[in-house]
Write a structure and sequence with these properties.
This protein has 9 helices and 12 strands. It has 269 residues and is of the alpha/beta class. The chain is globular.
């Protein structure tokens, strides 16, 4: 039910405090797009600390992806609640507002929502930084190329060149391109929805190491995953969802497959 065992050695696993909170969510609700009066997300509240990796687990239909998308303002017109970035109340009307506030989302479906498959690696990495790489409709190709080369090297993206079409890359390298695109924005909060789905074990380990490095550098990270070993291996704290609500908040020192699954199983079953 929980997949294969994941072995990940961490140098430390310090419990993060809320003293330096980068993201705070209060009473977040998301209405159903068709069923009037029904909420997909129900009164969700939590904090994310600077440098913290917050694991988000839930079974199918629990609302993990909906929560991640709502934090990124994908469903801004249907959500209510309060968002605070470093203690400041923020109003998100669109994903562009979330990006400007320092939030980035690596989506669950990289091919559908994360990449322009027929474009090359360089163009995909530069998509989030068009304003920084030119004036008006003109791009500075030297800047765009330098940005792509930087992240190809740092994330060890296996490509014949920065001009290789993304569609021809392996799943793991496609995921690294999505990560590079958002890391180039230098976000304060990074949302990762199923970040290792469909990638081989080697690429998984590289992505885990990258997540830990970003955490050490002070980035707040939320990782939503249906793989319990992944959540247990990389998180500092675990939030559990069931039927659109948060049913448990568990420090990693107390988190086990048993108590996480117990909180994830709907009460109606």
């Amino acid at each position: 039910m929980v997949g294969r065992h994941i072995s990940l050695v961490r140098e430390d696993q310090v419990v993060k405090s809320h003293e330096d909170t980068v993201l705070q969510v209060e009473n977040l609700c998301l209405t159903h797009p068709e069923k009037k009066g029904n909420n997909i997300l129900k009164n969700i509240s939590f904090r994310l600390g600077r440098g913290e990796i917050l694991g988000l687990f839930g079974l199918m239909g629990a609302g993990r992806t909906e929560l991640m998308e709502t934090l990124f303002a994908v469903h801004a017109k249907r959500c209510s609640g309060n968002f605070y970035i470093k203690g400041k109340l923020i109003s998100f009307r669109s994903p562009s507002d979330a990006i400007k506030s320092g939030i980035a989302l690596v989506p669950e479906d990289r091919k559908k929502d994360g990449l322009v498959l027929n474009l090359d690696v360089q163009t995909n990495i530069g998509l989030t930084n068009l304003e920084e790489m030119g004036h008006g409709i003109l791009l500075n190709e030297r800047k765009e190329n330098a940005l792509a080369r930087k992240y190809i090297a740092e994330l060890k993206i296996k490509t014949s060149s920065e001009r290789q079409a993304v569609v021809t890359l392996s799943g793991g390298n496609q995921q690294k391109v999505v990560l590079a695109k958002w890391l180039a924005k230098k976000p304060m909060v990074l949302l990762l929805d199923e970040p290792t789905r469909g990638v081989d074990i080697g690429a998984k380990n590289e992505i885990y190491k990258l997540i830990l490095e970003l955490s050490k550098a002070g980035m707040g990270i939320i990782i939503a995953s249906s793989e319990l070993p992944e959540i247990l291996a990389i998180s500092d704290r675990v939030l559990v969802m069931s039927e659109g609500t948060l049913t448990a908040e568990i420090p990693i020192a107390e988190a086990t497959e048993n108590n996480i699954l117990k909180a994830a199983i709907p009460k109606t079953i």
